[in-house]
Amino acid sequence: MAADVASGSTVIVVDGVTKHYPGVRALTDAHLSIRAGEIRALLGRNGAGKSTLIRVLSGVERPDTGTVAVAGENLGDGGVRRAADLGINTVHQELSLVSELSVAENLYLGRWPRKGGAVDYAAMRSGAAEVFARLGLDIDPAAPVGSLSLASRQLVEICRAVREQPRLLILDEPTSALAAAEVDVVLETVTRIASAGVAVLYVSHRLEEIRRIAHSATVMRDGRIVDTVDVGDADTATIVSLMLGDTAKAAERPPERDVDRDGTPLLSVRGLAVPPKVLDVSFDLYAGEVLGIGGLMGSGRTEVLRALAGFDPARSGTISVEGTTIAHPTAAVMKRLGVGMTPEDRKDEGVVPLLGVDENLVLSKFAAVSSGPTVRPGLVRRAAERLIGRLSIATASARTPIVNLSGGNQQKAVIGRWLHAGSRILLLDEPTRGVDVHAKAEIYRLVRELAEAGAAIVFVSGELEELPLVCDRVLTLRDGRVAAELTGRELTTDSVLSAAMAA
Amino acid sequence: MTATQTTPQQRRGRVGGPFAGRSLNEIGLIAAIVVLYIVLGSTAAGFLSLDNQLGMLRDAATVGIAAWGVTLVIIAGEIDISIGPAVAFSSVLVAKGAAEWGLGIPLAVLLTLAAGAAWGGLAGWLRARFDVPSFIATLGIWSALGGLGLYLTDALPVVLPESGLMDVLGGSILGIPTPAIVMVVLFFVFAYVARYTGYGRSVYAVGGNAPAARMAGINLSRVRVLLFATTGLLSAITGVLLAARLGSGNGGAASGLEFDVIAAVVIGGTALAGGRGTMLGTLLGVGFITVIGNGLVLLGVNSFLQNVVRGVIIVAAVLVNVIITKRARATRET
Question: Residue A133: is it exposed, middle or buried by C-beta count within 10 angstroms (0-12/13-18/19+)?
Answer without folding.
Answer: exposed
